[in-house]
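Severity: low
Component: inverse-folding endpoint
Summary: output formatting inconsistent between runs
Steps to reproduce: submit the following structure tokens with default settings.
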């Protein structure tokens, strides 16, 4: 599948809009794209692990509000924190794959990507005891140049992906992609569920969470959720990371101003804002919001 063959089949929104989709990309504070030039992969095992305590803070926020979420987990984390994986499942959340070690999908060959998604799926399933049917590429890195990734995901037993961000930024984006869920493979039920965006003035603007949630005033995020729900008629797809709940995390001294702002601004306000968002709207797992189950991961082409 290449760019010229991309003919997505749009799906209908859920018949009853009862909840938005909450997701969390589970990775260590030193594994993010903005810090890739600060922490070489070779030293990751030597660094302080903070992901368990930060994820537990997120779990407490969800428990207090009654929300459920989809946890896209790096298998690098899953194999080191099996108790955390089992707790996520035991508390009613969906567990899904974020790949092995946060390598961008658009930097991998087809064979490398296949090995990555196959390995991560097995490790996370073994650690959690639950089936993995969802995937999110590191830094939303499925786009026009690697649409073949959808076919590999379907071949490897995934039912859906939430890897496309239909915007244009300096790090990611596929602005020509549909803003809402679609089937990217002809004759196959595999579903791509893009991150939410705002269509304003002929452009799609990012609003789905992460740094934008910390940088924007909270009221803008609330406006975005309501607009996607009521004007577009779709559930909102939100995401954040455990390290965003950790204002005390180590901070390298040699970051550029841009990376420092992107990664650290308003970390101390994140938990309060998240709790407000959880109280203002209903949130559930991606698989339940979109009615996707394990049976769809073995759907064959017709």
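Observed output (run 2 of 3):
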């Amino acid at each position: 599948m290449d760019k010229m063959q991309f003919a997505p089949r749009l799906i209908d929104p859920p018949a009853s809009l009862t909840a938005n989709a909450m997701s969390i990309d589970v990775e260590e504070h030193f594994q993010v794209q903005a810090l890739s030039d600060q922490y070489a992969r070779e030293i990751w095992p030597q660094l302080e692990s903070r992901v368990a305590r930060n994820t537990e803070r997120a779990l407490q926020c969800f428990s207090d509000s009654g929300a459920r979420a989809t946890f896209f987990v790096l298998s690098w984390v899953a194999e080191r924190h099996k108790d955390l994986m089992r707790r996520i499942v035991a508390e009613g959340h969906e567990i899904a794959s974020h790949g092995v070690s946060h390598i961008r999908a658009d930097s991998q060959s087809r064979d490398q990507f296949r090995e990555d998604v196959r390995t991560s799926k097995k490790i996370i399933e073994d650690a959690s005891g639950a089936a993995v049917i969802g995937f999110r590429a590191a830094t939303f890195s499925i786009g026009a140049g690697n649409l073949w990734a959808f076919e590999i995901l379907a071949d490897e037993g995934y039912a859906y992906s939430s890897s496309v961000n239909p915007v244009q930024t300096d790090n990611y984006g596929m602005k020509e992609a549909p803003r809402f869920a679609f089937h990217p493979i002809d004759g196959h039920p595999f579903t791509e569920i893009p991150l939410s965006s705002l269509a304003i003035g002929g452009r799609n603007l990012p609003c789905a969470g992460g740094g934008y949630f910390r940088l924007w005033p909270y009221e803008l995020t609330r406006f975005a959720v309501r607009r996607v729900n009521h004007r577009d008629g779709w559930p909102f797809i939100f995401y954040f990371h455990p390290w965003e709940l950790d204002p005390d995390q180590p901070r390298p001294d040699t970051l550029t101003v841009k990376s420092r702002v992107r990664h650290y601004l308003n970390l101390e306000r994140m938990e309060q804002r998240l709790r407000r968002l959880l109280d203002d709207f209903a949130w559930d797992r991606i698989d339940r919001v979109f009615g996707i189950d394990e049976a769809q991961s073995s759907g064959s082409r017709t």
